[in-house]
Amino acid sequence: LSERLSGVFDRLTKQGALSDEDVKTALREVRVALLEADVSLPVARDFVKAVQDKATGQSVTKSVTPGQQVVKIVHDELVHVLAGEGEPGKLKIDNAPAPILMVGLQGSGKTTTTAKLAKRLKEREGKKVLMASLDVNRPAAMEQLQILGVQIGVDTLPIVKGEQPVAIAKRAKMQAAMGGYDVYMLDTAGRLSIDEELMQQVEAVRDVANPRETLLVVDGLTGQDAVHTAENFDARIGISGVVLTRMDGDGRGGAALSMRAVTGKPIKFVGLGEKMDALETFEPERVAGRILGMGDIVALVERAQETIEAEQAERMMKRFQKGQFNMNDLKMQLEQMQKMGGMESVMGMMPGMGKMSKQVKDAGFDDKIIARQIALVQSMTKKERANPALLQASRKKRIAAGAGLEVSELNKLIKMHRQMADMMKKMGKMGKGGMLKQAMK
Ligand code: GDP
Ligand code: MG
């Protein structure tokens, strides 16, 4: 998919303002991308409309293509929708003991998330936490929470065989008050799908505990189903926030967008693995990147905007057109690359280039080499930089020694310079720099 998107965007190479046509073409693909990322149709439609209004007529930054610019606008809108009000990762847990009710389908990751969250509250906020399992349905479910509790050093409510969920909730509440706990967490039982019995059980528990937070735990890989689950739970139980688990898997995160658009509830945390540390504050930027599946084009655009000064590029281009490309130009190019985070990072951010960046690295062309090449240019005299033809054996020795490197390395640099200079010359000759402008993008 990312290839198809970048394909479309590559075709949009006109400069100036974004035309209606540019935006429409790009947005058709964005819509497909959203649907493939499991965003529901009405949500995708509304979203695309919002972006269209924002994008048309915007002027294009010189150093990026209109396609990349559209991606950025789409990205920003995604972030806007994904980010709810209130601070992600923060829970309302004043007035000790504050009850947190954990709900969701079976296997969504409730028990794991309960323990992860308890650990986080304990370590980051210094809270004294009590966990209680209300899962009387699945064999060994209560022991599972107990074992996790021991592992992370958080207390669990002692297990009483045969006790029912409401009774367990009452006991947890009492124990939390008597034991001086800041928070008590109720890990409920799930079902394979939503059913009446489950809902009644959770409702009864809710009424006893009167939770400060009711967190719905949903499997981020289940896409559209996750959204239905959220709607259902919210309608019956009333949820205060969502935890998306399995975001370490290859789901595209479309569920997150639909969930926000449909329920309006904040996504508080994401689960990123089975380990107890694998719980993170929900970051809209990250998920937006995932949905677009565009590598990190947005970061690339942003960095390009920051680092490439249009004027400087323009001046250089004029020189190249005249066939001038000396060592100073080469040095500037190398520094530009360095500023943007080095070869590996620049290539890693371009869709489809991830693999190539590894090859480049394997071939021994890494960021350290860029630094060494810059050092070599620096140890040349002004004259040598302006006229690389001067570089004969004795000068080479001096330059290499000055940079603390081998002459062979300098030879490589000279060869690279010659190749680039040739290329620039050729492109400069081809019609008023049209080709060159393309190559610079
Ligand atoms: P529950 O039935 O809702 O209580 O689900 P559990 O907490 O027992 O989790 C079910 C399985 O999912 C367990 O094997 C967990 O280790 C796993 N799991 C939970 N959260 C995550 C997550 O964020 N990423 C991954 N990869 N696995 C998870
Ligand atoms: Mg469980």
From TrEMBL:
GO terms for biological process: SRP-dependent cotranslational protein targeting to membrane. Its main location: membrane. It is an enzyme of class 3 (hydrolase). It is a peripheral membrane protein. SMART domains: AAA, SRP54, SRP54_N. Keywords: Cytoplasm, GTP-binding, Hydrolase, Nucleotide-binding, Ribonucleoprotein, RNA-binding, Signal recognition particle. It is found in: Cell inner membrane; Cytoplasm. Residues 266-279 form the SRP54-type proteins GTP-binding domain. One of its GO terms (molecular function) is GTP binding. Coiled coil: none annotated. Pfam families: SRP54, SRP54_N, SRP_SPB. GTP binds at residues 104-111, 187-191, 245-248. PROSITE patterns: SRP54 (PS00300). Its EC number is 3.6.5.4. InterPro entries: AAA+_ATPase, P-loop_NTPase, Signal_recog_part_SRP54_M_sf, Signal_recog_particl_SRP54_hlx, Signal_recog_particle_SRP54_M, SRP, SRP54, SRP54_GTPase_dom. Belongs to the GTP-binding SRP family. SRP54 subfamily. HAMAP family: SRP54. Composed of three domains: the N-terminal N domain, which is responsible for interactions with the ribosome, the central G domain, which binds GTP, and the C-terminal M domain, which binds the RNA and the signal sequence of the RNC. Involved in targeting and insertion of nascent membrane proteins into the cytoplasmic membrane. Binds to the hydrophobic signal sequence of the ribosome-nascent chain (RNC) as it emerges from the ribosomes. The SRP-RNC complex is then targeted to the cytoplasmic membrane where it interacts with the SRP receptor FtsY. Interaction with FtsY leads to the transfer of the RNC complex to the Sec translocase for insertion into the membrane, the hydrolysis of GTP by both Ffh and FtsY, and the dissociation of the SRP-FtsY complex into the individual components. This is Signal recognition particle protein.
